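Design review, sub-item: ligand-bound model
Attendees: FS, YL, KQ
YL presented the inputs for the S-adenosylmethionine complex:
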Amino acid sequence: MSPNDDELALKARFIRNRSLAQTPVRLAIERRVCGCDYGGTSWTTAHEAKQVAELLQLGRGKRLLDIGAGSGWPGLYLGAETGCDVVLTDMPEIGLQIAAARAEADANSGDCWIAAADGAALPFVNGSFDAVSHSDVLCCLTSKQGVLNSCRRVTRTGGRMAFTVISISLGLSAANHERADAAAPPFAGIEASYPNMLEQASWNVTHHIDLTADFLELTRLMMSEEESHAGELRDLHGEAGFTARFTKHGLRIQALEEGLLRRELFAATAA
Ligand SMILES: C[S@@+](CC[C@H](N)C(=O)[O-])C[C@H]1O[C@@H](n2cnc3c(N)ncnc32)[C@H](O)[C@@H]1O
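KQ shared the predicted structure:
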């Protein structure tokens, strides 16, 4: 299926953001807000990544697939922390080139492979992985069920998946849905709940953790850090880009406070 205009615009934004995320000022903010410096574009903190490592029961000899891995966060970190082997995939591949350089520099004890691939059409044989992770990826693409199905196919029976996702709350009025949409990542809207989609894809949910309050705190912290680096960020993003970021942070804080948006962590085993 060919991508629509919204998907092409988002892809262009990811390409642009990817190199901006590697600049010293953005890496400094990432360290302060998320506790890492991989040039990440999700909202996954180091604390959450450690939680994911536990939920996935990662360790030496285990093989992890990180989908939408961008420049390697959190897949490379999970490999470094646990010694597991890691396969990173994303589309387009610009982030993966940065991840490859980081993997080489870090020289983790486990193996690392990298493949440009659509999360909904993973190019691996059935049951190739012990574990799968993705960080705020499903809210950045349309084929959510396709990704969950594809993840299930490439995970061995009994294997595990953990992911974070931002979504627009179900059952909102049209006006509130519009407000949530303006504050959310581009494809955060859902028609069915994630537990339903997971069940549909033959995943058994083991953990469902509401991270909305943490995400609200994180967004406030991000906003105040960006305010402290306003000069450098204006140079980086331009006046209009800088203002747009601030406007979005403000809308997001309001939407989170009012329960229009949520961020959740799910863990599941492959049935
Ligand atoms: C919010 S970013 C997260 C990136 C990275 N994991 C991180 O935490 O920084 C979402 C990622 O999903 C990727 N993505 C979007 N659509 C995809 C698809 N259909 N298949 C695989 N990756 C996709 C984007 O390129 C982007 O890197």
